[in-house]
Amino acid sequence: MPNQNQAKVLGGQQFRIHAALHDETSSGWVWCLLQGVKPRTLVEIKNLESGKSVVCEYRAIDNYFLDTYNDNKAKKVRCLDVTENPLVISYWYRTALGIERIGSQEVLSIAPVRDRYARIRAGLEHADHMSRLATRLGLISLWLGFDSVLLGILSVLSFVGRYFFLVVSIASILIIVGSGIGLGRVLRWGWPINSEE
């Protein structure tokens, strides 16, 4: 296992992995201590050993959370100690990152996400299945709306001529199929989250 200096060379930090409390197993966040990052910020967590990553919400460990966690944890689980740089993370996200054991030290990179599609990715990779479903249904609705507008425009243009109508019809089918394939690839994010491509 790399030490703290080797972790910095790899571009990450060494975290002690802790299981999320039972009440938070389907929540879309992790608990840790990050300098200069506001709580409730979307962050990307990268496992530098496996190369896997997820986007989720960051929540800061405070004294109240420490007391709550240590009072409600399972009996055989070690107490949360901020000097060990803890990361409290659910089974869903641990599996997605390729982290096999709780209590282990893992080299991870955790940074705020500045990508405009981060919220969509967070929804597609969320630990709660209803959040993933809602995000997928929203994307399908957006795709159908876009294709409906496009087909409406193409149907107006089809009055120009008979051969033009044939070309427009073929183009419409290709656009719908192509955008559907692209949407299908996007919808596979997180369903299941640990599937191999």
Name some characteristics of this structure.
disordered C terminus, 197 residues, single chain, elongated, Barwin-like endoglucanases, six-stranded mixed β-sheet, alpha/beta, 6 strands
Task: Describe it.
The protein is an alpha/beta fold and 197 residues long. The chain folds into two domains: 4-118, Beta Barrel (Barwin-like endoglucanases); 128-187. The chain has helices at 4-9, 63-72, 91-97, 118-124, 129-157, 162-187; strands at residues 13-19, 29-32, 41-47, 53-60, 86-89, 105-112. A six-stranded mixed sheet has the order 2-4-3-6-1-5. Helix 5 runs antiparallel to helix 6. The longest helix is centred in the C-terminal third of the chain and has 29 residues, at 129-157. The protein is elongated. Residues 5-10 and 190-197 have low confidence and may be disordered.
Number of separate strands: 6
> Helix/strand-derived class?
alpha/beta
Number of helix segments? Answer: 6
What is the residue-averaged pLDDT?
A: 82
Percent helix: 40-55%
* Low confidence ranges: 5-10, 190-197
The secondary-structure element order is HEEEEHEHEHHH
Strand content: 15-25%
Shape-level CATH architecture of the largest domain: Beta Barrel
What is the top-level CATH class of the largest domain? Mainly Beta
Tell me the distance between the termini: 28 Å
CATH topology of the largest domain: Barwin-like endoglucanases
Short description, anyone?
The protein is α/β, with parallel strands linked by helices and 197 residues long.
Topology:
Layout: H1 4-9, E1 13-19, E2 29-32, E3 41-47, E4 53-60, H2 63-72, E5 86-89, H3 91-97, E6 105-112, H4 118-124, H5 129-157, H6 162-187
Parallel strand pairs: 1-5, 2-4
Antiparallel strand pairs: 1-6, 3-4, 3-6
Helix pairs in contact: 5-6
